[in-house]
Amino acid sequence: MSVVSQVILKADDELRYPSSGELKNIQEFLKTGEQRLRIANLLAESEKKIVEQASKELWKIHPDYIAPGGNSYQTKQRAQCLRDYGWYLRLVTYGVLAGDKGPIENIGIVGVKEMYNSLGVPVPGMVDSIVCLKEASLKLLSSEDADATAPYFDYIIQAMS
């Protein structure tokens, strides 16, 4: 949930107007709007490139995944992995846009370890895949934008670890 939504809901729950401190928080949030939009746009436009780079790096770390009998050996399984990578990248953009980790938690992190375990997907490999996504993504961003984006990847990594 964005800072704006949080302030409005809290004030409404307490039947009051937003405080000057809350309004200042909204003002600071709005100042970063252009940066957040720029980051989200670049990640969205670069999804294919990011996913391809991240998957190449993951296969170097875990070549057994694409070897006969591996979780990503066949075309269908590999396509499902790449689909998931794109999905996690999209979750990061949601967090960046909201300026909050709430959308990541609400949409995609709760129960993720249990889901992958039940499907027989190695969770450490999924953690490595998010690390690879992070590295591929941050290489495309300026250092300032990378600093603003990294915590959203780190949140997913921590939730899966």
Describe the structure.
- It contains nine helices and no strands.
- The chain has 161 residues and is mainly alpha-helical.
- It has two domains: 1-31; 33-160, Globin-like.
- Helix 3 (33-45) runs antiparallel to helix 5 (75-98) and helix 4 packs across helix 5 (75-98).
- The two termini are 24 Å apart.
- The model has no long low-confidence stretch (mean pLDDT 90).
Key terms for this structure?
9 helices; elongated; 161 residues
Q: Architecture of the largest domain, CATH level 2?
A: Orthogonal Bundle
- Terminal CA distance reads 24 Å
Overall 3D geometry? elongated
Largest sheet composition: none
Structural classification = mainly alpha
Quaternary structure classification? single chain
Low-confidence stretches: none
What is the gist of this entry?
With 161 residues, this protein is mainly α.
Element layout with pairings:
Blueprint lengths: L2 H11 L6 H12 L1 H13 L1 H15 L13 H24 L3 H8 L2 H8 L3 H16 L4 H18 L1
